[in-house]
Amino acid sequence: MGSLPSDDPSPSGGLLRDKVVLVNGGSQGVGAAIARAAVREGAVVAVTGRRPEPGEALVAELAAAGGRAVFVRADLADAAQAKAAVTRTVETYGRVDCLVNSAGLTARGTLLDTTPELFDQHIAINLKAPFFAMQAAVADMVGRGAPGTVVNIITSSAHGGQPFLAPYVAAKAGLAGLTRNAAHAHRFDRVRVNGLNIGWTATEGEDATQRAFHGAGDDWRERAAARLPMGRLGRPDEIADFVVFLLSDRSGVVTGSVIDWDQNVLGGLD
Q1: Is 168 a catalytic residue?
Q2: CA-to-CA distance for 214 and 69, rounded, in angstroms?
Q3: Beta bridge partners of 165
């Protein structure tokens, strides 16, 4: 079993000092930004991903900056591997204090053209994996009689979304409901569960999606930014700071909240 960090406070204030944080889908994009922010705030981190190259590169980057991190290879389309990532984290660090479910599949599909296979892929990655990762992590917290926190990265599209995101919306809307259900079920265990409905964000994955499904060119970010109220897309590091706050004790007693992190206002009409 690996040793935990020392009691020396981190220079940045240490919102997650001595916490063990598991970030599913943490090898790139929003997940990687969350891992960086968690380490900066004093946590030791486990990150999961399907491909070892970006995961190992992130762990090396965090180690070079003086952080503690481990990469756990896992295909979250398999619920058993989602649970096993929690087991591996507990074996490495002794416990899981915080879980972030950041992995997401955004492959396009409408109500009319989505195949059962594509629908099942969305459910597996966007809903089933978070469910069983939460099951394993919360079991560890409850078994130790210790408080813990979970943050699920959802999407503002869970409110309805675009026609070409039908299976994605179905799965992520389920995750929003699951977030509230788990928060209610485990509030007296002092396990807080919250979600973040993130809007359009500039990530590696979004770049690949825009090019693969929408024929976007190199200037797609600039074109998108020109249509947005704040004149730019969201940034992973901004989301990461908010997630760290929700994982930390500074977010107090907040649980069961699914927060819109977006620049468009639900229900607002021009």
Answers
A1: yes
A2: 36
A3: 109
